[in-house]
Design goal:
- There is one protein chain.
- The chain contains 8 helices and no strands.
- By secondary structure, it is mainly alpha-helical.
- It has one domain (31-63, 75-253).
- The longest helix has 41 residues, at 76-116.
């Protein structure tokens, strides 16, 4: 009895101390892994590739010239037909360019994020779905923006620069939303892509505010009513900085959260 009193023990004292296990939950990443430097450089490269493709092939479509267009003077019917053919070709070229941006942008940013996660082949089916979605939204962006331009083309209540700015905003906002949504799908982070897409839409506003005044100052003779510029330098100014800015914002959108310190 005296020994028991001198050395009081309990079952809890004799039990082995709980050891931390690797299965304890840690705070996991809820968003994108690739940072602003990686995504910014990726966007720069994508923009350069888009510009090179446009330099090589643009315009993709040419207006059909009626057989009786060689006669002079042109009749009102022929003039109207030529204008309609030119408008149709412009729309087709804009849609093709939107698809090009969606394809290269969706694929490039998804590849950069996959490489940053060190599992580039894990989500290939989701990447394919995301690229198709992004290309579709790129085509829709061109269609809606060109439709806006045509609808308000002769409205004198809107300043030409304001109309051009709105057209570029519509186009780049829809493209940016497609990039944000498609990247979330490609990484299977669908529920958390809304904030990223909204941030990219805000970036599209910045793109328009930077591009339209600069293009009007540097290339005053270019047709500002086209979504895709016709001159080489103007196309470079239109594509390369835009994709770099959107890539930078993608990298800033959702950084990986580090495990919580114990």
């Amino acid at each position: 009895m005296t020994e028991d009193k001198a050395n009081p023990t309990s079952d809890s004292d004799n039990a082995p101390a709980a050891q931390p296990t690797a299965a304890e939950p840690v705070q996991q990443s809820a968003g994108l892994v690739a940072g602003p430097l990686c995504m910014g450089i990726t966007g720069l490269v994508i923009g350069l590739l888009i510009w090179l493709v446009l330099e090589w092939q643009f315009p993709f479509f040419h207006p059909t010239v009626p057989k009786n267009a060689s006669s002079r003077p042109l009749s009102p019917e022929v003039t109207a037909q030529l204008a309609a053919e030119a408008s149709t070709a412009t729309l087709k070229n804009s849609i093709a360019s939107g698809i090009l941006i969606g394809l290269l942008g969706g694929l490039g940013f998804a590849a950069a994020e996959g490489l940053a996660r060190r599992r580039p082949l894990r989500h290939v089916p989701w990447v394919v779905l995301a690229v198709v979605l992004c290309a579709g939204l790129g085509a829709a962006a061109a269609y809606v923006a060109q439709g806006f331009q045509q609808a308000w083309r002769f409205d004198r209540s809107i300043e030409p620069m304001t109309r051009t700015l709105a057209t570029q905003w519509i186009f780049w906002s829809m493209v940016a939303a497609g990039l944000g949504l498609s990247l979330g799908i490609s990484t299977r982070r669908v529920s958390q892509t809304l904030g990223t897409a909204l941030q990219l839409v805000f970036g599209a506003v910045i793109v328009g505010l930077l591009y339209v005044p600069l293009a009007g100052y540097i290339f005053p003779t270019d047709d500002a009513e086209r979504i895709v510029p016709m001159s080489t330098g103007n196309r470079a100014l239109w594509a390369i900085p835009a994709l770099a800015i959107l890539g930078l914002l993608l990298g800033l959108a959702r950084q990986r959260r580090k495990p919580a310190a114990k």
